[in-house]
């Protein structure tokens, strides 16, 4: 059968159409599969990174919750605890440059996994001293130890105590000294926190860059926002874990709890601080496991292929001749980077808005870091709360207020279309109102507890104008008491005594926490009182203190929210006043300055200032000054809040200067654009040199901007 040319052409065209349809179907199918695998891979990475953010935030906040526990366990002052807290930032700074530079070219998921292992090793190392330094021994002296044997707390004659008992007591003390003399176990805590800082370093820069490289561009901001949201949940669980562990005695499982004579309200109480670090270490290990099975690269989304918008992809634009020109291109790029470094630095520091905002941020972070670090200690000492309750309150009330404040700041900017000038005003207003509220906390304090011989005289409730502290008095002159003893008892007259011996008690009944002392010659209003009694533990603070604590919580939550509202506008102000090609460099300088000039020194000098308010220092078993046992509540309040407010006030002056420069450099047209919901600029003067045009910034795809758009 002969086929006509027309039919042949028709058959040929049908075959072509069918083949084209099949090829297009195959390409669509492969594209959908690639897109599905890409989305699946990035979502797995997102879930793993979110869990890592949760783990590192949990361990970091748990360290803050155990500040007072570590101080008491190792008998160290607050200034040394500040050094331990700042060691995390030191560890982070040691390798941040290496990780940022080399990490982008290596297997980023595995580097993050290795960081998690290092972070968990550091967390475990912090808990190690608990298993090598023996059982915790709070201050006990022969006079009070033997009170459980039915002897008089007031030893009128040392021969009254059986010699064997004294010898055993001295032998135990000497043995403990030999064990403790050659070691300072707190160094392991410092080294562990240093390792935590090293392990945490690659998580943020490499993790966020990985998401930005392989996520669909319109989803990148949402993914990063999810990670940051999970990171806020971490501290809540960290402080709640600290609250739980603080309820448990430090040597739980190793000693008979019925023999413990102190309660969680005692200043010598130490909770199971080490237990939380073991839990946090296990969580860090689990968080790092998925990264060892993730690929080095994920398939690029179709919308990102062939695009130069990705910060990582732009480094490797030359694809075809990469093998031939890699070395030459890298050398040329390194030479260009070295050549442009000083001009870029000069350009950056020539930007008055950036410099002023950097100074304001450094000083404000000094204020906030110092305040947050010692907030648990302040609540415990000022309001007589336990460590467990303090951590519970901070974790359940303060941290959610901070998270809600950050979200509110971003929401306000988006809803009202706030530009650069508006962001500066909002940041300044929130700081001013927050520190103004903080000023009211000066009136919400409790008085220093009455301790005989320290804050009040014996047989009196109020010290006279010329009163000088005196440990001994006529009422206990017949007793052989230790000057350094700190085993507080509460007399029935509401006055605390450093020990039952200094209270002049001559009889006792019961053991442990239920011990009651009788015939205390220093308790009461007259020396002839023979029926006065005392119980173990310090006296509770005045009746008005619980009410003051409630007021403090309310103002503290409002202050935390108010200060946090200005966080997002301030960050946007920083981003919008930097040229796109200098933005990464500017943020690196900003982060470095905050860590070096605020994260490291603030806990140290805050701790030194707090140490100056101590009225009674503890004594180490082998001699020397231990941790503080009693603070001057009024002086502590003025030092803690005063230092925070002074730093905050100075930062406000710099923020005012930022606003003044922006007003001076902005044109009326910029303000009109800002009021209409469009992005304002950082000014018109020297715009090409120091500031970024709003249109250019809109085109920039740098990830922090996407994050703050949420």
Automatic annotation (TrEMBL):
One GO location term (cellular component): basolateral plasma membrane
BP terms from Gene Ontology: monoatomic ion transport; sodium-independent organic anion transport
Keyword field contains Nuclease: no
Cell compartment(s), UniProt: Cell membrane
InterPro entries assigned to the protein according to its UniProt record, in alphabetical order: Kazal_dom, Kazal_dom_sf, MFS_dom, MFS_trans_sf, OATP
Membrane topology: Multi-pass membrane protein
Ranges where the Major facilitator superfamily (MFS) profile domain occurs: 45-666
Alphabetized UniProt keyword annotations: Cell membrane, Disulfide bond, Glycoprotein, Ion transport, Lipid transport, Membrane, Transmembrane, Transmembrane helix, Transport
Catalytic reaction(s) noted: L-thyroxine(out) = L-thyroxine(in); 3,3',5'-triiodo-L-thyronine(out) = 3,3',5'-triiodo-L-thyronine(in); L-thyroxine sulfate(out) = L-thyroxine sulfate(in)
Bilayer-crossing regions: 40-59, 80-104, 110-132, 220-250, 270-294, 354-372, 392-412, 432-452, 548-575, 587-610, 639-662
Pfam hit, one: OATP
Cell membrane in keyword set: yes
An annotated Gene Ontology molecular function: bile acid transmembrane transporter activity
All copies of domain Kazal-like, residue ranges: 469-524
UniProt cross-references to NCBIfam families, sorted A to Z: oat
Family that this chain belongs to: Belongs to the organo anion transporter (TC 2.A.60) family.
Name this polypeptide is given: Solute carrier organic anion transporter family member
Annotated organism of origin: Rhabdornis inornatus
Organism phylogeny: Eukaryota, Metazoa, Chordata, Craniata, Vertebrata
